[in-house]
Amino acid sequence: RRAHFDAPEREALFAAEEARWHVDLERRRIATDPDLAPDERAARLAALEAELPEEVRETRRATLAAVRLRADEASLRAAGASDAEIHALRADRFGPEAAARLAALDERRTRWNERVEAWRSEREQLVAAGATAEEIASRRADRFEGPERLRIEAIERMEASR
User: Fold this and answer.
1) How many C-beta atoms surround the C-beta of residue 159 within 10 A?
2) In this structure, what are the phi and psi dihedrals at residue 156, rounded to the nearest 5 degrees?
3) CA distance 43 to 39
């Protein structure tokens, strides 16, 4: 960069990227520093984040929003939060429409997990009764269609490889 661009050009073209690199390297150093107390580490990381250009900070916030929401939801659930409290958190972060979509997603995931557990139980019974692989595959095809079948087969392969 120094060989091909002068200082103003480098600044215009690469400043944000270099700021991210600097912050990432410093973040790793802070995260692995055994001499820092957790609160001091958090403060230094927050100060470091503030050094980034606003556009980079905003991109990071947006990118990490779902991760933070999931962590906050897990903390609330561990503390015994109700579905209404989870909904309120989601609505506060992303608005009521998004909170409703996330609740619908939770419901679909719950139904899927229940179907998977029911299939596991049925499959175990089939295996115990001496069913052939073809019989099991036929039953699986009766319970799951299209992408669901691919998904359940992938789950079974992962479980078998453990």
Assistant:
1) 9
2) -65, -40
3) 6
Tens of pLDDT along 84-138? 999 999 999 999 999 999 999 999 999 999 999 999 999 999 999 999 999 999 9
One-letter amino acid for residue 127 of the chain:
V
Residue 15 has pLDDT above 90, yes or no: no
| Collapsed DSSP state (helix, strand, coil) of residue 152 | helix
Structure tokens at 150: 């691919």
Nearest partner of 73 among 60, 58, 56, 91, judged by Cα: 91
Share of the chain above pLDDT 70, in %: 100
DSSP 8-state class, residue 36: S
Q: Is 161 helix (H, G, I), strand (E, B) or coil?
A: coil
Instruction: Enter the tokens of residue 134.
Output: 């073809």
